[in-house]
Amino acid sequence: MAILVTGGAGYIGGHMVLALLDAGEQVVVLDDLSTGFAWAVPAAATLVVGDIGDEAKLRAIAAAHQIDTIAHFAAKIVVPDSVSDPLGYYLNNTVKARALVEFAARNGISNFIFSSTAAVYGEPAVNPIFENSLTAPINPYGRSKLMVEWILEDAARAHGLSYVALRYFNVAGADPKGRLGQSASNATHLIKVAVQAALGVRKGLDIFGTDYPTPDGTCLRDYIQVSDLIAAHVLALKHLRGGGGSLVLNCGYGHGYSVSEVVDIVKDVSGVDFETRRAGRRAGDPAALVAGAERIRVELGWVPRHDNLREIVTQAYEWERKLRDGTVPKARASSSHF
Ligand SMILES: NC(=O)c1ccc[n+]([C@@H]2O[C@H](COP(=O)([O-])OP(=O)(O)OC[C@H]3O[C@@H](n4cnc5c(N)ncnc54)[C@H](O)[C@@H]3O)[C@@H](O)[C@H]2O)c1
Ligand SMILES: O=c1ccn([C@@H]2O[C@H](COP(=O)(O)OP(=O)(O)O[C@H]3O[C@H](CO)[C@H](O)[C@H](O)[C@H]3O)[C@@H](O)[C@H]2O)c(=O)[nH]1
Predict the structure, then answer these.
(1) Does residue 330 form part of some domain?
(2) Residue 333 lies in a domain
(3) Where are the beta strands (DSSP E) in 247-319?
(4) How far is it, in rounded angstroms, from Cα 100 to Cα 50?
(5) Could you tell me how far CA 222 lies from the centroid of its own chain?
(6) ipTM of this complex > 0.85?
(7) Active site residue 141
(8) What are the backbone angles phi and psi of residue 28, rounded to the nearest 5°?
(9) Is residue 90 part of a domain?
(10) Based on the number of CB atoms within 10 Å of its own CB, is 139 exposed (0-12), middle (13-18) or buried (19 or more)?
(11) How many domains does one find in the chain?
(12) Ligand 2, residues at Cβ distance < 6 Å
């Protein structure tokens, strides 16, 4: 049986591909390379370049491979962009995901793993946030993802699918073996931007909002290391293949760091006191998001191994240094795909 990994040329999906290949699985990646990289997908996986909304391409994949599971990572992911381009986000993240769920239902692909997000909770009244807390997203990105959770819930009931929706908190760090990291140069994530500032790839860093109701006035987030997150996906796959029922699970460590604390750790790890500028709040940002992180341990037996922000920052820094110096390991010649 093969696993279809959408968005497998991207940051998190790429780590999933590595983990699946490490486990001896057959992997087919479908990615339009809008923010992903063909070179990041090992030659041991089949890479199909295309859109998740392209039904003909999906049919061709189903005809050529025995897919039993879809791990759906492909999405647009930048919160402020979703505020300025909501229709683009709803098309890519919701409408095309609906088509993918329909494709699964029609083709008897009964397992679906979905990259959801803490953004479904919006501005929570209290932290930590549990899976049964109110979902009230405050930006189109979060809404675009919550709608997919609803689509999955209804489709599962009607069509015999089982799914695991994983609500990621803030994903960061890189493969501990140094094979992959977050590579898009225009990424907007805090740790990525901060290590770029430390390496001189960007000129300093704006701190978006210093007047939030948090201990130091900057936003609090729960940063989860990418391989720990992927371990949760591998357990979700095992759960679904073993006939387990549908689940919605937070993926975080259960404690948060402020933007200022993250910046201080990046400065410390890199030894560079890069410039920081106090800037206004960024559109769509909630003050604090910290996971209630128990359910995933109980349901899947997940045990985090990299819950250490200094280690996470060091991994991100080392990967960024390779990107800057042009020494990242390329897993395939970029032209070898379908
Ligand atoms: N990075 C985070 O902190 C975070 C947090 C919560 C949830 N997520 C979710 O995790 C998933 C992966 O995010 P990432 O950080 O790896 O981002 P990424 O941009 O690196 O990866 C997304 C991948 O999807 C591909 N893609 C986008 N639209 C596509 C389409 N229509 N058809 C085919 N391919 C398409 C891109 O080319 C890219 O390779 C996303 O669904 C995102 O919403 C990420
Ligand atoms: O240059 C920067 C970049 C970020 N920040 C701040 O750092 C915090 C974290 O921002 P990120 O952009 O790293 O992450 P977000 O919390 O906005 O969003 C991330 O996590 C969410 C879930 O928590 C979503 O799923 C989303 O896909 C993913 O990008 C925010 O307060 C943001 O304002 C800065 O101050 N300066």
Answers:
(1) no
(2) no
(3) 247-251, 257-258, 276-279, 288-289
(4) 13
(5) 13
(6) yes
(7) yes
(8) -120, 125
(9) yes
(10) buried
(11) 1
(12) 77, 79, 117-119, 168-170, 188-190, 193, 205-208, 219, 221, 259, 282, 285, 289
